[in-house]
From TrEMBL:
The keyword Cell cycle is assigned to this record: no
Organism: Brevibacillus formosus
Beta-lactamase-related domain sequence ranges: 3-318
One Pfam short name: Beta-lactamase
Ranges that cross the membrane: 456-478, 490-512, 524-545, 557-576
InterPro entries in alphabetical order: AmpC-like, Beta-lactam-related, Beta-lactam/transpept-like
Superkingdom, natural source: Bacteria
Keywords noted in UniProt: Membrane, Transmembrane, Transmembrane helix
Tagged with keyword Transmembrane: yes
Protein name per its UniProtKB record: FmtA-like protein
């Protein structure tokens, strides 16, 4: 642990391992507060567990299913009281869809968090606003799309079915019965035991401030690692802990079973748990979480009644550490090999080459503010055919951290591939004339052309912005030179106006707006700054009109026309990616 934490620049971590009805191992490493040199104590240090909260929210929903207050497969509009889901243009959304991330609700990034560390008591208003602004993007139940907004809706459904806030419901029916005394959805008022989180900038650790999330059920839970142990024990003990029943045994089985998978041989997802296996083939259930730099991972091994929880107070390298901890533990204690030998399906190199290309994983919305993040935060995967049975895939994989790795896969069923000496699975299928690769982090990734690749899209965003900055500087230099030389003939003022408007927008957008997106924009940015390219476009159209109707000869005609056309094209590009005050989608 010490070596890996040093190598990955992780200041603090905690591990808790359970077996049966007891804690087998618990230990803290490093510091919860680097500045004050406060060590991590798994019994006292509170960590934010991020999206592992979703498993707790799923458990709460299934309790209400047991009580008859919710149904897995009925239209949710039958139980929603304060609002209805009206933008579900592809069909009704059910509890099953929310629990499996297959509801088709567009992702929510804009104004998802706040800097005041405020978590709403009830999520009804924020969920209602989200559903009104964003339509569904595919038929519910047809594919997996990880969704904070979907689990946010799930939390609101629980609130309306129980007539309690999600926090109060969890405290009464999950936290208190299991003795999870430190657990809550709100950030504690007394933060003396709350760990700080950090990122490493090359020179040292920098503190990441706490933020609030508008969807409590998606990632707001905080607790000590030891207090998470009873939750794992209950799920590994037919729903009971120390004589207290959390769920019925048949409900636990339902949550742990495969509830959705694109291909029958894929691990898929249950209710509140992803399914997987250890390197030696033992089935697992797992969930990851990340918020404000905190990274957590839960892994359950039902056949051995073992639960593993790892929490760290560092950014992305935390996932890599979690994988190393789980693998180290299972390699030592679970030595039995249960992997069945891979039986390759005969194919041809030509068939494999049909799968080649670049596939793109995006975690950004298709509508509203945030669509443009695809240019900055997409994850490409490159597929290459090695022979008639084997392909290589280079990209980022769920349990390997934020590093790009090359893995080799062999075809064991039609278009279905299993990683050689590993747990990853891939399935290729065609949909509406395009190939999709399902597997990395359970997403279905479309195959993209060169023009759709992130570097090209980013270049089309950055290069014109830089060009307009240079044009502005050139005009300023020309203007200064003319004044110094006391030249009297006029020069066009429209081109520098266009260039200055685009330059101002690009600099503000690139330095402020991308980072501030998750917290929302002030009205001045939305309606003034984000409208600057639109004003530039109007100036460009006026300039082209003047050039087209001018009778006198202008030696700068070609250059001015090119600048105007670039302004029009660039504004159109920004409009398509929803960077402007008016949106394409």
């Amino acid at each position: 642990m010490k070596n890996e934490m040093n190598n990955l620049h992780i200041p603090g971590a905690a591990i808790v391992i359970t077996q049966g009805d007891r804690i087998l191992f618990k230990k803290g490493y490093g510091f919860a507060d680097v500045e004050q040199q406060i060590p991590v104590d798994p019994e006292r240090t509170v960590f934010r567990i991020g999206s592992v909260t979703k498993s707790l929210t799923a458990t709460a929903a299934m309790q209400l299913v047991e009580k008859g207050k919710l149904s897995l497969h009925e239209d949710l509009n039958t139980v929603l009281k304060d609002y209805k889901i009206t933008n579900n243009r592809y069909g009704p959304i059910t509890l099953h869809h929310l629990l499996t991330h297959t509801a088709g609700i567009d992702e929510k990034i804009y104004k998802r968090d706040n800097r005041q560390s405020v978590i709403p008591e009830f999520s009804t208003e924020t969920v209602k606003e989200t559903l009104q602004m964003q339509e569904t993007i595919f038929t519910p139940g047809s594919k997996f799309q990880y969704s904070n907004a979907g689990t946010g809706l799930l939390g609101s459904v629980i609130e309306q079915a129980s007539s309690q806030s999600l926090h109060d419901y969890m405290r009464e029916y999950i936290f208190r019965p299991l003795g999870m005394d430190s657990a809550e959805l709100y950030l504690p008022q007394d933060r003396s035991n709350l760990a700080k989180s950090y990122y490493y900038d090359g020179n040292g650790y920098q503190t990441i401030p706490y933020s609030g999330i508008i969807f409590p059920g998606s990632g707001a839970a905080n607790m000590t690692p030891v207090d998470f142990a009873p939750y794992m024990i209950a799920h590994l003990s037919d729903g009971s802990y120390n004589g207290t029943s959390l769920l019925k045994p048949e409900t636990v089985q339902l949550m742990h079973a495969q509830q959705f998978a694109v291909h029958k041989r894929m691990h898929g997802i249950g209710y509140g748990f992803f399914k997987g296996e250890t390197k030696n083939g033992i089935p697992t259930l797992w969930a990851n979480g990340g918020i404000d730099g905190f990274i957590s991972k839960m892994v359950l091994i039902p056949s051995e009644s073992i639960g593993i929880f790892v929490a760290v107070n560092a950014t992305h390298p935390g996932l890599e550490l979690h994988s190393k901890v789980v693998n180290a533990f299972t390699d030592k204690l679970l030595t039995e090999q249960v992997h069945k030998p891979l039986t390759p399906v005969d194919g041809t190199i030509d068939e494999m080459k049909k799968l080649e290309g670049q596939y793109l994983l995006t975690l950004t919305p298709e509508n509203g503010w945030g669509k443009g993040l695809r240019l900055l935060s997409s994850y490409p995967y490159t597929v290459k055919a090695l022979d008639g049975q084997t392909i290589s895939v280079t990209g980022m994989f769920q349990n390997e951290g934020q590093q790009s790795l090359e893995k080799k896969f062999v075809q064991v069923d039609d278009h279905f591939f299993q990683e050689i000496d590993g747990e990853e699975q891939l399935y290729f299928h065609e949909e509406q004339g395009n190939f999709y690769m399902t597997g990395p982090m359970n997403f279905s990734l479309p195959r993209i052309s060169f023009i759709e690749s992130p570097p090209v899209l980013l270049a089309l965003y950055v290069i014109p912005g830089i060009v307009f900055i240079l044009l502005s500087l050139v005009w300023i230099a020309r203007f200064g030179l003319r004044k110094w030389c006391k030249q009297s003939h006029a020069i066009s003022k429209i081109v520098p106006i266009m260039a200055l408007l685009h330059s101002m927008f690009f600099i503000i957008q690139f330095t402020y707006a991308n980072a501030g997106l998750v917290y929302g924009y002030p009205a001045f940015y939305q309606f003034v700054v984000a409208s600057l390219p639109i004003v530039s476009l109007a100036a460009a159209v006026y300039l082209l009109f003047r050039i087209g109707t001018a009778k006198e000869r202008d030696r700068w005609k070609v250059a001015n026309s090119a600048a105007a056309v670039l302004s029009i094209l660039y504004t159109s590009y920004l409009f398509y990616w929803n960077f402007l005050s008016i949106h394409y989608s």
